[in-house]
Amino acid sequence: MAGRGTKSGKKKEKSSFRFIDLFAGIGGFHTAMHSVGGKCVFASEWDKNARITYEENYKKIEPKLFQKDKEGNYKFFNADINDVEMNNIPDFDVLCGGFPCQAFSIAGKRKGFEDTRGTLFFNIAAIVNHKIQIGKKPKILFLENVKGLKNHNHGKTLETLLRVLKKDLKYEVRTAVLNAKYFGVPQNRERLFFVCWDKKQCCAEDFSFPLGLDAKLKPLFEKEKLNKCIATKVSDIFEPASKIPEKNTISDKMWIGHQLRKKRNQENGKGFGYSLFSGDSVYCSTISARYWKDGSEILIDQSALGKNPRKLTPVEAGRLQGYKIIGNGWENPESKHNQNNQKNFPEMKIVVSDKEAFHQFGNSVAVPVIRTLAGEIRKQLLEGQE
């Protein structure tokens, strides 16, 4: 089998495949993998509020995932990855993991493997190695991290990761930096993706990364065609203006502070400060886990209303990551029919405080990117192997 799923012979009927969801967050990988036929058999997430969101949104989809033993402990919904009992992890086909990026992020401490969080990648390697030792090697590893990982420590960090994946675990590996703005969400969000496969189980020589989606939601594989990607604008995610709480409009004091800080940073050559967008903006900045603090990276212009800029609502923040969230509806009726609001997609329910919701969505993967990649992983690597 070559890239893009080329194969010969009679086409097999699609069946489900098993995956595990490590560093699960609120389930971006789960949502995407489930949409292409995946069945989650194990998940791990340590943050208590993320666990609340995860269970609330997936317990109807995968009830077995949240089973408890006689002592009331979860059997397959693990908390601390460092405490995982390898023998309790069911066999699986695909390992998914947006492994923690604090150690590799430009905004982090940049200590790499000297930072204990950086070594969490090796929890992934340990789980895979255990499965290899018992003759149940996973077919595919599907990983995500920040773009800055490529250049961290002059490329040595990525070099180490690739060595582990290729030489130690014996996988074919392809990597690519993809931007969510080309996949139908109005957000300039670049992330590094790893697709790794066992050639003995997946007879593919290569993997072609989709770089975006066109207006018909067909994957685009050539950079030259990205000008034909699905059109977006920031107002696609807006709730009705009449439903936006007044608390979302920033105070005079905060607005003055934002402007003074930006001016000072520009004078010092830093170039950092608030970012202001209108509903007609094609896309906005990357939403971060700190968005709840002051919303400075994504402020919505309200000058036409004679108001200071406003922050996004939690519903809008979730939609910015491609989740299907009904909330109070849409400001523009046509936005209701976007690609992330299909009937077969489960509705994401926000069951935590606004602060926690912003934190969770800021840490999440962009679902349309993961969903598109999951579809290509299925097509190019899994079909014909089941």
Task: Describe the protein in words.
The two termini are 14 Å apart. Helix 1 (28-35) crosses helix 9. The chain has helices at 28-35, 48-58, 121-133, 156-168, 252-267, 291-294, 314-320, 354-363, 367-382; strands at residues 17-22, 38-44, 77-78, 94-97, 140-146, 172-179, 190-197, 212-213, 219-220, 276-277, 299-300. The protein has a 7-stranded mixed sheet with strand order 3-2-1-4-5-7-6, with helices on both faces. The chain has a two-stranded antiparallel ribbon with strand order 8-9. It is built from 9 helices and 11 strands. Mean pLDDT is 90; it is low at 5-13 and 110-118. It has 386 residues and is of the alpha/beta class. Helices cover 25% and strands 13% of the residues. The longest helix is centred in the C-terminal third of the chain and has 16 residues, at 252-267.
Question: Can you write the helix and strand succession as a string?
Answer: EHEHEEHEHEEEEHEHEHHH
Major sheet: 7 strands, mixed
CATH topology of the largest domain: Rossmann fold
Strand order of the largest sheet: 3-2-1-4-5-7-6
User: How far apart, in Å, are the first and last alpha carbons?
Assistant: 14 Å
Query: What low-confidence regions span 5 or more consecutive residues with pLDDT below 50?
Result: 5-13, 110-118
CATH architecture of the largest domain: 3-Layer(aba) Sandwich
Shape: globular
Rg from C-alpha positions? 21 Å
Q: What's the number of extended β-strand segments? A: 11
Summarize the amount of helix as a percent range: 25-40%
- Overall mean confidence score, pLDDT: 90
The CATH class of the largest domain? Alpha Beta
